[in-house]
Amino acid sequence: MAKKAMVEREKKRQKLADKYAAKRAALKEIANDADKPMEERFKARLKLAKLPRNSSATRLHNRCQLTGRPHAYYRKLKVSRIALRDLGSMGQIPGLVKSSW
Q: Which domains does the chain have, with CATH numbers?
């Protein structure tokens, strides 16, 4: 089980990313538009830099929804490999057969 603080930090980052997503996208569009004047593009970059650092989507990290584990994460199922094996052993995932020998 991951530290609760790390899981909560990740939730906080997700909330910030959702909150600032539209504003961030609009500023990026202005900053990357070559047709706009250089001053306007520079002002957009400055405004983008003033947004909270944790509001960037690149700072998010996928975590298992059951255990909070950050590594060996299956995107389709949103669980880690260890949680997947446990669920498969209990027969919770249809079509999954765990092999052991």
A: 1-61 (1.10.287.1480), 62-101 (4.10.830.10)
